[in-house]
Here is the input.
Amino acid sequence: MLVQLKDVSKIYEGLVPFKALDQVNLAIDSGEFVAIVGQSGSGKSTLLNLIGLLDTTSEGALSIDGVDVNSLEDNARTTLRGEKIGFIFQFHYLLPDFTVLENVLMSSLALTSQTTKDDLAEAKSLLERMGVGHHAEKLATAISGGEQQRVAIARALTRHKPIILADEPTGNLDSINSDAVFKLMREIHADRKTTFLIVTHDERIAEQCDRIIRIADGHIVEDRAVVHQATV
Amino acid sequence: MNFCLRVGFRYFRSGGSQILLSIASVAFGVTVYLFITSLIFGLQKGFIATTIGNSSHLTLLPLEPEVRTFSVGDTKVVSSVLPFNEREVTLRSYLSVIRQLEDIPEITTICPVSAGSGVVIKGGQNRPVSILGIDEGRGSQIFGIGRSIVSGELDLSGQSCCVGSELARLLGLKVGDKLRVLSAKERVLVANITGIFKAGNINSNERLLYVSLANGQRLNDMVGAISRIESQVTDPFLVETTAARATLITNLKVQNWKEVNKDLLNGLAAQSQTTNIIRFFVLILVATSIASVLIVSVLQRSREIGILKSMGASSLALQGIFTYLGMLVGVSGASVGVGIGGALILGIGEIPGNSSIKPGYLFPIEIQGGFLGEAFLVTAGIATAAALLPARRAAQMNPVDVIRQG
Ligand SMILES: Nc1ncnc2c1ncn2[C@@H]1O[C@H](COP(=O)(O)OP(=O)(O)OP(=O)(O)O)[C@@H](O)[C@H]1O
Ligand SMILES: [Mg+2]
Here is the structure.
């Protein structure tokens, strides 16, 4: 199992502690293409942040690629995150002072403190693939929102990380851009067998994934495979 | 640390007016730091030169009469071995003492002095004076008379003497006049005035009368003896070690200039302390300006910090980025400050004027290469240190918190 959750709960401590996830059990295999759906506030982002090692579980066991992450020190978690997990958020979070190409290279740089020739070649080809190769030398702020999100996807895909976590990746895009971006993710999946976990509000997009996990009030209320109609 | 430096440098480059302003404030701080340092240094150097340049660093005096106590039965008797007559204590074997002092390499000038009191008489008027018999060549060094002659020349040979400007004014004396000197020992000298001096001290100008050592000895009734030996050393601030040696060798009472000028030294120390306090506050200012700019920068970039962390950048790396940013601001501010500030201070130092410490200039500024280096290192260092706190804050940011706010 690539990702495994056993009785995982997440309680947000605060004035009033809040249980955002309650005894969640989940297993995701390498190469799956999963949609996570549910009402606003149901706990989708919470689940993704736990799997992405951005946050820690309150109860239960979480393992990534066989590693029990609860036992890891902060630095080891950071390194594991950098090596295994790519993030795509609703907002692109590109660094505004860097060029498009530099932004893509940043994930190698952040992880290893350097960039190799291979990193450069990979970054360029990913940008081409996302259809923004011609913007490589522009500042990240000088391109459109749809283009920025594609650059963010290219950044997440560098270094062949086995897991891509996408929290409403198309939430800020119009329907044409959102379809295009989703199609790109499917293509990458077909190519690389990268595992995708995509949080989405868009049932139409969810139906194009291979598996749908529905969350309500911190519980998994539905977990089913999608049967795709044969496409022409 | 390639990553930290690259990101830090980019943030620096694209920091815009915020970064420029903080560079300017660091540069301003360096300038003030340099100005204060150079001014106080020049002031103290000039002050010390005028105060101790023309005075004795080390004075050797005959031992005071010894005081002994002994008991006769139950009674304690205190006795002092007084000289056999009522004359002051004098130094008889001074020639051999001078030879001993000449063996101490740190001692540069040695001058035997015969001192006594008397009056000078001119026309119907008379004035009390201190009669100083000195060795003309060596004395001019220590007493600075050579340099302060305003009329005539320093010549104490034969029956000549030099008087101060104030005395000359009071008695209407001029070079070439004859002056009658009557000592407290009732010896008389009719001296030829060869020079009139004007020392920094008005009291000296009114009270001092210089004659040759031989004339002094005769007037003060100590033929073959002197009152004291005055001397100067290479480094006046290290005078104590030389004093200790002189005491050991000569077995005389040795007095150094620091003992005599305690008030002056305390004043200088207080001044240095004030300088340090000013410098301290300037550095606090530099540190606060850097820290505040960085705190704002960290807050503005919190999302970027979150995303960098999500990509695997360690807390240490993030701390490094902002520490470099602070260092870059500090180093460029310090460079600008040392360059522009240094030039400015050099310029200010050239402004003509009338300072008593550095005649001809408005400010007694003395800038030294070392000051530039010191100001640069201290400010750049403080700037980097000031960056540490905001940088830690960046390092401790939790990526979920900042990303959620998106
Ligand atoms: N840091 C936090 N402190 C307290 N409560 C939190 C915190 N983060 C999330 N929550 C709460 O936990 C619940 C789940 O939040 P989560 O962000 O996972 O929802 P979501 O399913 O992603 O919603 P949306 O679709 O609106 O993004 C919500 O009720 C939210 O208010
Ligand atoms: Mg969410």
Summary: The pocket of adenosine-5'-triphosphate (ligand 1) is lined by residues A 12, 14, 18, 20, 38, 40-46 (CB under 6 Å). Residues 57 and 257 of chain B are 5 Å apart (CA to CA). Chain B touches chain A at residues 1-4, 6-7, 10-11, 13-14, 303-304, 306-315, 317, 399-400, 403-404, 406 (CB under 8 Å).
